[in-house]
Inverse folding.
């Protein structure tokens, strides 16, 4: 069980959260100008590192807000990325 | 109760441990079931024997050693049914062909339905299976009671069992012995199985891969075939080739040894647990992946807690059984929960990945079609729909929730 630090509620059990995958994946500025390959990249391609990963979590059973953490995918060690900042 | 089956005696020598040569016609990365089956069919079906299977750990020590050994082909979509049923056809002939009794036990697989909608979805899958030549039946609770007397069929539980699909040809096999059986035959035909040899990157020349970099030095290759499951993107990242894969922990557990009591495989998508009894007597339980990405080969306790709660409601008889061991594999999950098998932008580099939770049952089938792809440079008709390009064309094979188990 991961112990995750919600910037608003503090340390809580993983069961209170919903995982949102990689952080900082912005919606494209000009989706109508994109070809199929670029659109597929936006939809489907994500980093998959063994090591530090910037990812999003939502505190669904608490304040229901989204935030980012940096977690090591090999050790599960979690570093709050920008404590108190709302995820993009 | 039926007596416990006798465990097969492994032959005294299973495979050589050769020093790697400096060059091979084909290098396969990963000696799990898929890598070994691919090597076997490359030699058997295509006469390509100058093959090395490189393994960073020990043979079949990754996900092959960590799966719940269930074999079935009751998938919804045509492409999936064809591929998994091809595997099932091969499973039935392999013990004789490989001259190795790996305890393939066609004890039947029940997929339970607990809601009215699930009943409709399950019956639809049965019809789809029958149209695809996959054996499938819809069974009512009275018949389930005969097939699996220990299952709780009370109407008073939270999610009563309203019926189930049944695949009688489905079952389990002894996973380690499957790997060893393929390894021995591949070795006999001249394939080099090289353990303790981690592939760390590639040698390239333009749009060709000319070899792999390994912990034992560079090894040249005419063709390179990846079969590295959860670690595939760690390799393709070194080429700058991005794949639609996310690696997740997938947990399983076993109980202490019990006398034979659980006669088939029972899976429930809705309460999400699957349970069978291993030949030796352990109950083998699994559920879904942990949601987050992870390479740690361990998952979260609450996932185990939920699957055991689900199992206990279905099988109250197991309430006093002790859990002996839990573990996790690292599975690579695609956006449509179907694998990627086929070519890459590098003309002699091939991909077999993205099996998520379902790789074991496909082992001989994927070995067959992947060997064809590597040998001819073109997909076999059965893996043609599984190309990387489907994520661009949109021709997804979306087995999420349709495949008789949630992903």
């Amino acid at each position: 069980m991961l112990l995750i630090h919600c910037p608003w509620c503090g340390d809580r059990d993983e069961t209170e959260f919903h995982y949102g995958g990689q952080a900082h994946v912005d919606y494209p500025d000009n989706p109508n100008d994109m070809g199929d390959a670029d659109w597929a990249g936006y939809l489907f391609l994500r980093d998959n590192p063994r090591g530090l990963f910037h990812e999003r979590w939502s505190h669904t059973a608490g304040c229901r807000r989204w935030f980012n953490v940096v977690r090591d995918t090999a050790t599960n060690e979690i570093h709050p990325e920008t404590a108190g900042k709302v995820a993009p | 109760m039926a007596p416990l089956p006798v465990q097969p005696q492994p032959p005294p020598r299973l495979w050589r441990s050769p020093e790697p040569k400096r060059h091979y016609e084909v290098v396969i990365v990963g000696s799990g079931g898929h890598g070994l089956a691919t090597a076997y069919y490359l030699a058997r079906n295509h006469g390509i024997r100058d093959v090395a299977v490189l393994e960073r750990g020990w043979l079949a020590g990754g996900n092959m050693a960590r799966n719940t050994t269930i074999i079935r082909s009751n998938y919804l979509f045509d492409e999936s049914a064809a591929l998994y049923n091809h595997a099932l056809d091969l499973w039935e002939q392999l013990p004789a062909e490989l001259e190795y009794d790996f305890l393939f036990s066609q004890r039947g697989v029940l997929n339970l339905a607990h809601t009215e909608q699930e009943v409709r979805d399950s019956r639809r899958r049965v019809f789809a299976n029958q149209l695809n030549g996959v054996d499938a039946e819809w069974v009512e609770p009275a018949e389930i009671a005969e097939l699996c007397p220990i299952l709780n069929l009370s109407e008073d539980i939270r999610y009563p069992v309203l019926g189930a699909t049944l695949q009688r040809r489905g079952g389990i096999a002894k996973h380690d012995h499957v790997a060893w059986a393929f390894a021995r035959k591949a070795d006999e035909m001249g394939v080099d199985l090289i353990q303790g040899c981690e592939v760390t990157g590639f040698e390239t020349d333009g749009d060709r891969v000319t070899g792999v970099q390994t912990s034992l030095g560079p090894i040249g290759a005419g063709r390179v075939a990846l079969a590295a499951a959860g670690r595939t993107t760690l390799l393709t990242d070194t080429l700058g080739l991005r794949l639609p894969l996310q690696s997740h922990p997938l947990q399983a557990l076993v109980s202490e040894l019990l006398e034979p009591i659980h006669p088939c495989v029972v899976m429930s998508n809705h309460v999400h647990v699957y349970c069978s009894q291993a030949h030796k007597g352990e109950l083998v339980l699994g559920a879904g992946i942990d949601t987050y990405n992870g390479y740690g080969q361990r998952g979260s306790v609450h996932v185990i807690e939920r699957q055991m709660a689900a199992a206990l409601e279905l099988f109250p008889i197991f309430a006093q059984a002790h859990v002996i061991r839990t573990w996790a594999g690292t599975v690579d999950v695609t956006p449509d929960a179907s694998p990627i098998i086929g070519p890459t932008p590098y003309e002699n580099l091939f991909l077999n990945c993205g099996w998520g939770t379902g790789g074991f049952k496909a082992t001989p089938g994927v070995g067959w079609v992947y060997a064809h792809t590597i040998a001819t440079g073109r997909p076999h008709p059965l893996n043609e729909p599984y190309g990387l390009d489907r994520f661009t064309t949109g021709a997804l094979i979306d087995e999420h929730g349709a495949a008789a188990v949630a992903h």
About this structure: Chain B touches chain A through 24 residues (CB under 8 Å). Residues 16 and 252 of chain B are 32 Å apart (CA to CA). The first helix of chain B runs from residue 33 to 46.
